[in-house]
Backbone:
């Protein structure tokens, strides 16, 4: 009898069936790991932005933003751009006064993850830009949120709703950090 050097069609079909079954098991396991990694990366970015914005607020809360003597106005005070550039002059030169303990002393983050239209921006792990929700600029306590739209790319958190009034149903798959600043 002669030795065989090839697989029969039946053996090939069995091998392919086993491989298909294994891939059917492995794909869901791997995709859940990717989702978890994306959430972890986005949460880390949000925590870094939260810390940077607290430093920015500490330095600039006494700086007047009127749009006349500054490039920004009060309702734009917490834009991500101002972590990289001064809201007064629009450049990255520090205007901090140690004696007054006031003024822009940035940049507060080392680099942006996106630069659209010449403005620095931050994106989440799904490739969506982080959004700032400044709930009511006229309040004495500043309620500011940095929101990632999550895997679906749609921001579910209503921008005018106070952070204290958010419910799990109003958040959806969004990830956010909130700051209550005085």
Residues:
């Amino acid at each position: 009898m002669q030795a065989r050097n090839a697989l029969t069609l039946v053996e090939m079909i069995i091998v392919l069936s086993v491989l298909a079954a294994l891939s059917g098991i492995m794909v869901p396991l791997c995709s859940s790991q990717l989702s978890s990694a994306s959430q972890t990366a986005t949460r880390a970015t949000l925590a870094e932005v939260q810390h940077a914005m607290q430093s920015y607020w500490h330095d600039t809360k006494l700086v007047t933003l009127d749009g006349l003597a500054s490039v920004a106005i009060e309702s734009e005070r917490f834009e991500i751009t101002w972590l990289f550039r001064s809201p007064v002059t629009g450049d990255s030169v520090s205007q901090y006064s140690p004696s007054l303990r006031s003024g822009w002393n940035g940049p507060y983050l080392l680099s942006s993850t996106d630069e659209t239209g010449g403005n620095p921006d931050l994106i989440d792990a799904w490739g969506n830009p982080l959004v700032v929700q400044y709930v009511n600029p006229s309040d004495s306590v500043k309620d500011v949120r940095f929101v990632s739209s999550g895997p679906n790319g749609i921001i579910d958190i209503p921008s005018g709703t106070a952070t204290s009034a958010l419910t799990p149903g109003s958040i959806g798959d969004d990830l956010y950090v909130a700051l209550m600043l005085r």
About this structure: Residues 40-181 form a domain with the Glycoprotein, Type 4 Pilin fold (CATH 3.30.700). The first strand starts at residue 114 and ends at 116. The two ends are 90 Å apart (CA to CA).
